[in-house]
Amino acid sequence: NAGVTQTPKFRVLKTGQSMTLLCAQDMNHEYMYWYRQDPGMGLRLIHYSVGEGTTAKGEVPDGYNVSRLKKQNFLLGLESAAPSQTSVYFCASNPYGAGSYEQYFGPGTRLTVT
Amino acid sequence: GESVGLHLPTLSVQEGDNSIINCAYSNSASDYFIWYKQESGKGPQFIIDIRSNMDKRQGQRVTVLLNKTVKHLSLQIAATQPGDSAVYYCAENTGGFKTIFGAGTRLFVKA
Q1: Strands (E), B1-111
Q2: Distance from C-alpha of A75 to C-alpha of A22, rounded to nearest angstrom
Q3: Residue B111 clears pLDDT 70, i.e. is over it
């Protein structure tokens, strides 16, 4: 099992450009999440999904959109990047009904917006 | 509002000593707590969890203590090793999909 993978690992964007971050998991997990990590602020939830075809807003959703067309993939889109979106982005997943809320994280995507 | 905070942003310990990382939480409704370890350049990794109906849980070299009276959580690492150097996050969950992470404590292990 590869676990949770993220593409790309690094990206530099100019203000106003768009991009999509891809998250894939091969553990057949129902729940998937996108977080951003900024110095001194821990991880903040952007959007999440409780199953294929469903998405919901988290704590800091503005400026981002998501889609989950397939159970194993969760895409995070930035339509018009801003310098405030410079961050490290982590995807995570966990199974439904496992009796635990442990989340499995990907390696992260470091995004810089200039 | 909900918040998970840490008493110390950094902790430095001597190799072989025990480490204690503390965490405070404010939501009385939280019933599940997790500790994650994040090494440089990697995503957070699960260490240990505890439910609110417990006050102690032990793993391999790690122990989590929960004091619901003062809303305090701690992670104890026995015989700290250089490989334990990382940022440690406590996280709380109220039973839904929302997990709230603290700001993290960086642990330095001195050889």
Answers
A1: 4-5, 10-14, 19-25, 32-38, 45-51, 56-58, 62-67, 72-77, 86-93, 99-101, 105-110
A2: 5
A3: yes
Instruction: Read off the tokens for B60.
Output: 């391999």
DSSP string, A44-100: EEEEEESSTT--EE-SS-TT-EEE-SSTTEEEEEESS--GGG-EEEEEEEE-TTSS-
Is A58 near chain B, with CB under 8 Å? Answer: yes
Q: Residue A39's closest chain B neighbor by CA?
A: B103
* Cis, peptide link before residue A8, omega less than 30° from 0: yes
Whole-number Å distance between alpha carbons of B66 and B94: 15
Mean confidence (pLDDT) of chain A: 94
Query: Does the beta-carbon distance from B43 to A50 stay under 8 Å?
Result: no
Q: Are B93 and A104 inside 8 Å of each other by CB?
A: no
Name, in order, each residue with C-beta under 8 angstroms of A100's C-beta and a sequence gap of 6 or more.
Answer: A94, B49
Query: What per-residue confidence (pLDDT) applies to B4?
Result: 54
The string of pLDDT tens digits covering residues A43-69 is 999 999 999 999 999 999 999 999 999
Q: How far apart are CA B86 and CA B36, in angstroms?
A: 10
